[in-house]
Amino acid sequence: MTVTERFLHYVSFETTALEEKEDGPSNPKILKLSSEMMRELQELHPSEISVNRFGIVDAKFPGVGDKPMVAFLAHLDTSNQASGKDVKPQIIQNYQGQDIKLNDELTLSPKEFPDLKVSIGHTLITTSGDTLLGGDDKAGVAIIMTALNELKEKKEAHRPLEIIFTTDEEIGADAEHVSMDLVKAKYGYTVDGGDDRAISIETFTAYAMEASVKGKSIHPGSAKDKMVNASNVLIRFQNALPEYLRPEDTTGKEPFYHLCSIQGSEDSAKAEYIIRSFDENEMQELIKLAKLTARRINDSLGYEALTLNITEQYHNMKVVLDKYPEIQKEIEAVYHKFDMPFLYFPVRGGTTGSQLSFKGLPTPNLGTGDYNCHGRFEYVDVNQMEDMTKVVKELMRA
C-alpha cells in the first residue's frame, strides 16, 4: 500500500477525542483503529506488542547495528473541534494554485491560506467541507506504517525500533497513559502535523487557569449598592487581562491568555483559560499578573469574590532536548542526504513529546504535510507525506 492508500484507509475510522475517562479512551470508537493497528503491526512480526485499556499500541522490532532503539510515535485520535464522522476526502491532482471548492459553503483559497502556494504541482487531499480530514495525526500513522512496511517487504536492515500509537492526544491525555515501564527506546520522534520542512524541538510551557466568582444576587429592582453580579465580575477580569495577549493577536514565540469557555449568572460564574509561553520566567510573570488582577478586583469589592485555580500542564521540551544534540544532528543528516530544506519551528502548542521528554524519552517532532488541522479547511500535501516517508524510513535504517 502507498502512503496515500494507507492514509485514506485510516481516515475512514471515526476517532474523535471526547472527554477523558479513567477506564479507557475518551471515545470507544478509537479502539477500532487501535485494533487495526495491532493487526497491521502483528503481520510484521514484532518481538513484543501490546495494547492497554486506553487503546495505546506499543510494538518492538529487534534490529541490527550499534544504533540505539528509537521510537516513532503518532496519535490515532482526532480533534473534537469539528466532526470526524464519515470523512469523505477529495483528491486534487497537480494543484496549480486555484481556489478549491470544498462544498457549496466553503472554498479553500490561497488568498486565505497562503501555505497552499508551497503545494503548487503537488497532489492534495482535502475535506468535503463537512468534516475535518484527520491528517492530524493519521498522516503521521500512515507515514510510519508505510516506512516500516517498505523496510520489511524489501528485507532491508533496520535499527531496533519501537512503534507507539497513542490515543487522546487532542485532549492532552495520551502521554500520561503511555506505560513508560514498557518503553525501551532511548529517544523518539513524534510524526505529527505541519510543514515537512519543520523540525520542532520547542513547544509552549502550558498552564490551565480556572476563574470562579461568587456573586451577591439581589433582586434587580432593589440592587443598588448591594448586588455583585458574578458574570460582570468575570467580564471585568477578562477585560483587565492584556487585550493583545490573545491567540488571535499573537504569533511566533509571543505568549497568550486564551479564554476557552465562560458561563455564569448573577450568583456565580466560571471561566476556563489556558496560558501559554515559550519561556518559563515569562510564564511565571503571566501567572503573577493574573493573580494580581484578581486581587485588585477583590480589593475593590471588599471580599474574595474571584478565585483562581492555576494548574501545570506541560513544559517546553527544549529544556530536555538541548541536552541531546546528537538527536538534532541525526535528523539534519537525513534532510541533508535527501537535499531537503529544513527549519527549526517552535510549536505553538504541545506534542506528545512535550510530556514524554520530561518522562525520560527525549522526543522532537517531525512534520507530515498536514495543514489547517482541527477544521473543515484541513488538507494534506501527498508529496510532503511521501517525502516524510523517506525521512522516517532513513531514520529507521541500521
Model description:
- The structure is a single chain.
- The chain has 398 residues and is an alpha+beta fold.
- Helices cover 29% and strands 22% of the residues.
- The protein has ten helices and 18 strands.
- Strands 1-2-8-3-9-16-10-15 form an eight-stranded mixed β-sheet. A four-stranded antiparallel β-sheet has the order 4-7-18-17.
- The longest helix has 22 residues, at 280-301.
- The chain is globular.
- The two termini are 23 Å apart.
Describe, in short, the structure shown.
The chain is of the alpha+beta class. It is built from ten helices and 18 strands.
User: How would you sum up the major sheet?
Assistant: 8 strands, mixed
Shape: globular
Helical/strand content category: alpha+beta
What is the strand tally?
18
Radius of gyration: 23 Å
Query: Kindly state the mean pLDDT as a whole number?
Result: 96
Please give the count of helices.
10
Beta-strand percentage range: 15-25%
Runs with pLDDT <50, length 5+? none
Order of H and E elements: HHEEEEEEEHEHEEEHEEHEHHEHEEEH
Widest beta sheet: strand line-up: 1-2-8-3-9-16-10-15
- How widely separated are the two ends? 23 Å
Fraction in helix:
25-40%
